[in-house]
Each structure stands twice: as structure tokens, then as C-alpha cells.
User: Fold these one by one.
Assistant:
Number 1:
Amino acid sequence: MLVGCSDKNASGKNKDVTVHLYTSESQDQVGEMMKEFEKENPGIKVEIFRTGTEQVIAKMEAERQSGGLVADMVWFADIDYFNSLSEEDLLEEYKSPNAEGLDESFIYNNGKYYEVRQIFNVLAYNTTQVKNAPTSWNDLYSTDYKGKAAMASPNYSGAAFLTLASIVHNDDLGWDYFKSLKENDLKFEQGNGALASKVASGEYHVVSVVDFMARNAKNEGSPVEVVWPEEGAVIIPTPVGIMKDSEVKDAAKKVLDFLLSKQGQEMFKDQGYIPVNPEVGVPENAPDTDEINIMPLDFDFLKENRESLKTGFSDIFGEQ
């Protein structure tokens, strides 16, 4: 039986409680956050399972079918899947004291899951390779970038899947946009880390990538510039939730509290993310949130067209 966040073994000594976190977030950043959390919360260990969003979901579904879901907490870029978990009453409702004053748009279904920082899909280009900076999503299929433009695969990356859905849902872009990218020999990577690295090296001239990775590359001295497309950036919800059947919910709540705390928000800022707590401010070379133009996305459209979006993508690009 758990007492607080520790238990005792046969010798009477306290043993650590382990929180299993399933996530698609950057291993380095999440690892850094959890290392600091463990330092602040002796007796709680966080075991991280990290892969792409689609693979996280596949693992969860396989475990659910076998009757042995291991995850205590989940944190990845698929708001539609979180909504489904909520509808099935699989997520713990929790009002974190550190969510007081948080914008309501960052709190889902009465506290069943939360945004803990903001991510956007934008464009980034290599300043040594590109003379005329792109300004629009349409610039990705400019012949200037033929074979030198790239994005993440929506079959792996949750951010890429939301970008796919947002663009298909946009009347001025739609599926024709992706057909144009195919004709322009668009390249794919599994995740955003490779995109940021390869645009920094000049292997790619322009990429669709999450904003914090491109911004960090620029801030670290790479010849990278971030572009907020005129049609709007794609907002990437990446909620954090606690599984209702977790046996270590008290410990998991402490993890969530830490992510929303002033200390956690400052760490996110230092990692290049835009925090959800406006008092913390934004990282170097990031716009204020009220300056960001966001491309609309109807989440009902996302839910109703999930499989047809994947099929439509594969029909154009094959298996990526």
C-alpha cells in the first residue's frame, strides 16, 4: 500500500515509487525535466518510454488489448486520441494547484489533461543556402527548393499529422498542396530532430518543423531562420494526462504539478519552448503569443477524417 509517494520493502526501508511516462516529446528535454523533478522529489522515479506519437499510441493500444497498460502518465501530440481516452473515462480528473490562472484553453475536460507548453509547426530555412526567404507554406513547392525541402512523416510524428490535417482542411491549400510537394520531390524524416539538424547543416534548404527546434538551432549559432507562415502556423497540442487506473496517481500528480510550476515553466523557456504561464515570458527569438497567427483546425474534422487523411497521404507519397 502506498504511503505518500514511498513504500517499504521487506527490510522496512523505503523504496522508490516509479511513474511510467509514455511520451513523444524530445528525449533530451523530457529527460532533463524529469531529472530535475526527481531531485526535487526524492522517492519518486520517472521511467520514460519515448518514441513517435503513432508508435506511442500503438504501444498503448497493444497493452490495452492484452489487459496490461503500463503507462501512468501520457504526453504526446495527438489531441484526438486524448479526447478518446477522456470519452472512455480512462483519464484522471485533477485540478493542479499550479494551473490556477492558466488560460482555460490549456485545460481540457475539467482537468483530465493539460497543455504544459506551446508548440507550433512553422518553416525554417538555411540562411547560407536561401537568398529569398520563404514567407508562405506554398513556398515549399517552389522549384528553388526542388529536392531540398522536407517535413516529418505524419505516420510517425504527431506534429506532422496535425500539420497534414490543418493544411488539408484549409480551402486555399488542401490535397493539391501535397500533390505539388510530391512533384517538387519533397523529402521526409521520421522526426523533427533530424529536420532541424539537416536544415542547419544545409542538406535541406527549407523544412517544415516545430518552432522550438528551429529556434534553438538559430540561438546556438546555426545559419537557421524561423518563418511564421502568412497563412498561419499550425498549433500542436501536446497534452499531459494521468491514467485513471494508475496505482501511483499521487506521484503522477506531483509530476504534472512540477511541469506547471514556475520552476518547470522556466525550464521549458530555457529549453526554447513558449511556456503556458505568461508570467514566465518567451524564449530568445520567439514572438509574443498574441503576435502568432494560427491556422484554424476543426478538431471534429480531425476526428472524422483520421484514417482518410492517412490514406490520402499514402496515396500521394507512398509509405513514408
Note: Confidence is low (pLDDT under 50) at residues 1-13.
Number 2:
Amino acid sequence: MQSTCKRCLLQHEIDEAQYTASGCNFCDTYMSRLNQINQVNKSGFQKDIAYRVKQNKGPNQEYDCVIGVSGGTDSSYLVDWAHEHRLNALLVHVDNGWNTELSTRNIELLSKGTGFPLVTVVLNWSNFRDIQKAFVEAGLKELEFATDHAIKFGVYQTAKKHGIKSILSGRNLVTEGILPEAWSYGPLDRKFLLSVCSRHGVSIDKSFPSQSLFSYLFDRITRRYQEYFPLNYVEQSSDEWKMKLEKKYGWKKYDQKHFESTWTKFYQGYWLPKRFGIDKRRAHLSVKLLRGEITRTNAIEQLNQPMLPTDYEHTELKYVAEKLNIPASELISFSCKGDTPVSEFRNNKVFFDLLHTPTYIAVRRFLLS
């Protein structure tokens, strides 16, 4: 019998979950972080971020910052935020071959509406398809790992190429902030990516945006790159963000969070629930519930709605299988097997754990000060 937290929507079969007097460790941690942010002058923090970005601009540099865009809510609103704070941003989109028409249109509307130029990093499709097939065949939760890795380093390498020192990130506590560690693995680990691909006979194309952990950290420290998270300090709800984007740019919303990508729709709507019993809507809706944007009754009603249409296996899943060049029946069978942990492959997890220690954080702040 699965037990659900009395305050958020996470269920206690999750390994890291612990009951507390107020709810669970996930919502306690989230509320603690949210309360810290709510105690600051949010408008002042936003202005300070914009000022720091301007100050961080190198001499004779055209752009103040770089922003990775997907066409989804968070990155789109971040573009609008930069425009309203009079920053000159360079937009970067990593095209992994799974864009929907709507996501492409949203990106174009934002670029045109703000006047920000757009750089599109197009991945070698045949190679990227093989990388994704390797992750499917490996049976990993992390089907988005290769995409997230390419986005991270596609944005970073574009910033490096143009001499841009400031990167604006759409990560935030308004739409995110609750996600069990067991549900995913951070996208920086090139060693893990290479291990998965090697075991399935896949070589990574030289054009694929990637970098080793140590090279990346060395660059971050010596070149003094800064990453900022302005959306943490925006007062409005995510629904208000969407309404503003629709009115101002003609932007269109999606059925679910991150469904601007056909691959992410398959991953979050089919692969995770069917193979691992994971419904990421629990995390997304928990954030809205804790922020008072929806009631628990409404959140549960949304959870009870199917994520995908009833004919998904006969329509969109067939399209996904065709793009991967495997039979749909084989893709369905892969979705019905058990879990394969990250630890089955070579990885740098021990070093990533170290990066979150107070000592490392203090040292990095000192080096960048």
C-alpha cells in the first residue's frame, strides 16, 4: 500500500522519503528554501542580478548573457525577464531532432519579439539516435541524460565561443524544487555517458557538445563564468507566466510540463510510469500545492487524469520507435522491464557528491570572489 505525504504528493516508497511532523523531508526542505527566498527583497535581487550580468560583460563584447531555450515555460519566461531588464542576450537552442512544431514556433516568436538573436546547435541525428537507443537498451531512468548533457554544454560552449561570462538558467523554485534524487542523475557526467554508449557499441560524434567534469570545473573557475537563476525571485505563478507570454508574444502552452519535446513526452508520460512507476506530475504539482497555487483536491484530480491519450501506443509511440529505427513492439517490451541503476556503469558520482559539500562551495566562492 503506497502512502502519500499529508502535505505534498510524493509517496513514501521512494527510498529517500522520510515522514516528518509536518509532512516529509522533501516538502520540508522545499519550504525551508522557499521561506529563505521569500525573506529577501525579490525586486532588489532581480535588479542586482541584472547589474551583475552587466558588470560581468567583457570589453567590446556584444552580448551580456546567454540563455538556453526550449520553447517551454521556464526558459521562455526567462527570455522575457532578460528583455524587461534590458539585457542583450544570445539565445541558444540545442536541436536534438525531437522538437514539436509548437516548440519551434515559440522559440521563433520569442527571438523575434525580443530582438535577441538565436543560435541553433543541431545534433548529428544518426549518432544521437544511436546514443538514445543505447540508453533505452540499457534500461535506465535517465533517458533525458544525453539531451540534458548536450544542452548544458551546447549553451556553455556557445558562451565560451562568444566570450560571454554570464549564463542565465531557468531552474527555479517556482515550477521546480522537489525531485527525488533516485528519479534522475545530473547531466554533467561525461564518464557515465561514455560508459553507457561504449557498452552498447556506440561512439560519440566529435560534434556532440560535451566536456569532462574536470575540464568544465577548471573553465568555470579560471574563466570566471557565472550562472544566475533570476526566476527564483519572480513573484508571479507559473500560470501567470504563461498568460503573459501568450499575450505578449503569441506563445502557446503545452499539455504537460516539458511536453514541448516529443522525446520528453515519451520519457515522462510513458517510459517512467510504465517501467518504473514514476509520475513526475507528483513533483510538479507538489510545488504548486506548497505554494498555494492549487488545492490538494485539484492536484489529485489532475493526477487522476491520464498523461497520454488512450491511443498513444498506436500513434505517437510508433513515431518514436520509427525515429529510433526499432520496432514499436520492441520499444514497448523495453518499457516493461526492471530498473537498471546508474551504478551499473562507470560514473563520477562520488565527485559530484563532493561538489555539494560546504568545503567545496566555500572554496569556489573564494576563487570567484
Note: The radius of gyration is 20 Å.
Number 3:
Amino acid sequence: MTTRPTVRIAATGVLLVAVATGVTVALLGAWSSALPDPVATHWGTGGSADGFASVGAMVWAVVITGVLGLALAVWSALTSTPSLARTLLATTVGTVAFIDALLLASIAAQRGLTEATGVAFSGWWFVIAAAAALALAALAALLVPTWRAPWQAAGVRAEAMPLAAGENVVWAVPATSGSAGSVAAILGVALVLIVALVSRMWWLLALAAVLALVMAALLSIRVAVGPGGLTVTGRLGWPRVHIPAEEITAVATEQVSAFRQFGGWGYRVGIAGSLKGARGFVLHSGEGIVVTTRSGRREVVVVNGAGQGAALLEAYRERAAAR
């Protein structure tokens, strides 16, 4: 198969997530009359219940988790390689299954009780949840077919933009994450918030805040080429990478596959192909500027109009080398 089976992958994920969510909601509804109100939802380090919520709140938590799972399942169908699609789909389905199974195991232990305060935590709940997660994750991975994804070509050496003696030109453009990356970032923060609210593990709120700040800094950058070289700055002023023109030995452009070559979005290290070992800002797939420094280090930044930026940077590199 040479064409990505997008519909099949999405349908597989949607079906598995929907089944897990539907079964969990159905069982919670069927058990509701035999459960205490509220039910225990969190246990302290000593194994005693210290967090409680209504069955209705649990149903909403399951539904919201399911909706996020459905979105991630559809998103996994848009990836470029079979291995990545399997990994993302299996992780999504397995996570939803783990959360649902853990919740059901803890709720099942409270059936027939009038008070939930005496329910002790059991390690078997995690065993049951892990088994359910592994089973559904494995099934999801097995149902993703193999297809042959095209490989990106190697880089092309940039030709210097003609500049008059003493002429200085600045090229500055923004680069933002693609829609899939933005959705993944939002869903990731949302999932941490849901887990924090359901489990009452309030330290997770701080984790969600840190994740939100990091993602805000990395989902949008400014790429600038000037007489001083190449500068890439995050939206919040961090991170910032500057490579002086006199330190550059080669400038090229190359088509970059975010997942296949870098394993995702953000400030990444190349894991495959001609850019293996290179570092840089890969907010989406597309054409990027690839810079090699005197130390042999390679930096890459994917940005629209990379050819123009690379040509100008090559002109400044040649000017610096001629001094």
C-alpha cells in the first residue's frame, strides 16, 4: 500500500475509544443505584479515601476523556508514517482504556456500600487497568495497516543572494506550529487538567501551567537573517538561538518531515535520515534552513520562504568569510 489509509486509521481509533467510553458510561449508569453518594475518587498515601465526587461527575469526566481521545484518534490518522500512526493510536486508545478501567475498578469496589469513606485502595485496580490498556493498545496497533511513505530528499546548497558592497538587508518572518501541533498541545494540557480535577492531585495544575508556558513559547517563533547571522527567538523571548555569520561554514535548504525525521514538533534533535543529529526548531513539516557551523554542529529551522532566507544568509556567510 502506498497511500495512507486515513479513514481506516481514524475509524479504528474512533471505534475503540467510543466502545471504551460507552461501556464505562453504561456500567456507571447501571451501578449508580447501588453506589454511595458521593463515591471515593482519590486515595492518600496511606490507602484511605480522601477525595470524593458524585457519580454524575464521574460520568462527565469519562465523556470528556472520551472526546479528547476521539480527537487524538482522528489526529493520529494524519501522521506520515505507519510506525508513528501505530504509536499514537495505541497510546491514545491505551490511555483512555487505562483511565476508564481504573475508574471502573475503583467504583466496582464501592457497590453495595452506603459510605465510601471506608473503601481502601487496592493495587489490583492498577493491574486490571494496565491489562485493559495493553490489550486495547495492542489491538489498535495491529489494526493499523502498513503503507510506504515517501522519503524527503537531501538538502540543496544555498546560492548567495546578490548584495552590493556595504548593502545590508534583514529578512525576518514568523513561523508557527501547524494546526495538528496546536491541537495536540491544547489536548495535552486539557488532559492533565482533567486528571488533576478528577484525582484531586492539585500539583498537576502546576504541571499544566508549566506545560502551557512551554508550549506557548515553542508554538510560535521569529526567524531573522541579518548581517550578524541567523537568529531564532521564541514568542516569549525564550528559547533563543543565534549563529553568527562568521561561524557558519555551509547553508542549505531541505524538505523536513517533522515526525519521520525529528519525532515531533518543537525544538528537536533529528532521529533519522539526512538530518539525524541536527538540532533546531521544527514546528511543522516543510522546507527548512539548515546551517552547518565550524564545530560541525547543524541547526535547522523550518519556515515559510526558507529558500529566500537561506540565500541571504549565504550572502552574509560569504561576506564574513572574505574578511
Note: Residues 82-108 form the longest helix (27 residues).
Number 4:
Amino acid sequence: QIQDKRYYDGLIQLKIRELTQEISVISREIDIQNKERTAFSHYDDRAKKLAAELTDLQGKLADYNIVIDKVTSNINKESIEREFQELQTLNDKSSEDIERLFEQRRLKEQQLRNMEEKIESEEKKEERIVEAMPSEIRSRYDELVMIRNDLELEIGCMQKEIDVLSTEKLNLEEQIALSQIKQ
């Protein structure tokens, strides 16, 4: 029985060594993958920077090609400068228009904020007036508000019904007009 125990202890020791070796192999693989991931992100960032630089250089190349085309097509310096001045003037005008529109928008937004503040102030005034009312007047006010709300709902329903009936009337009038033509 002692040999059996030693035998199993030896087996366990062997399996522990195998597991330890496997764990170290997996750890090395994880380290390698982490290094590759870091290198990939570095290369990806570098590729993005180079792509942006390439785009910038392509833009400059296009500008140079335009200049070369102008020079080779016998366009003189004065016409290029004149075109530049026209484009500069157009650009300045566009900038002024944008500034003016921005200022108008800012003013409209300020007016809107002022109106919202006035509305809020009036609503608070109304609340204070309602709160200051004696209880019998307050209950009558609440009753009238409920009646108004009910009437607004009723008016909305009636308006929808009127719209439906008007559409139906138009359809019937068209049918009558068409049937008279057939007769």
C-alpha cells in the first residue's frame, strides 16, 4: 500500500510539472500576442498619420498641377493674379455673409431666450395670483380651468369631424360633377 501511495504521488508530481510547463507555454504565447497587439496599434497610428500627410501632399500636388497647367497654357501672371483677386474677394464676401448670418442667429437666439424668460415670469405671476386667491374663488377658477380644458378637447374633436366631413363633401361633389358629365 505504501508503494501505491508513492506511485500516485509520483503521478501527481508528473501531472503538476506538465501543467506548469503548459501554463508557461500559454503565458509566453499571451506575452507574444500582447506585444503584437501593441505593435499593431503603433503601426495603425503611424499609418493614419501617414495617410493624413499623404492627403495633404496630394492637395498641394493638385495646387502645383493647376499652376503648371496655367503656366503651360500661356496664361500670363496678370490673369492669374486677377483670378486670385476675384477668388479672394468672393471668399471675403462669403466670410462677411457667414459672420452676418452668425450674428443674426445669435440675436435671434437671445430674443428667444428673452421671450422664454418673459413667458416663465408671466407663468410664475399667474401661479402667485392663483395661490393668493381666496378658497371659494380658487375653487371656481379651478372649475373654470377644467371646463376650458374640456371645451378645448371637444373643439379639437369637432374640428377633426369637420375636416372629415369636408373631405367627404369634396369627394361627393366630385362624384356628382363626374356623373353629370356622363349624363
Note: The chain has a mean pLDDT of 90.
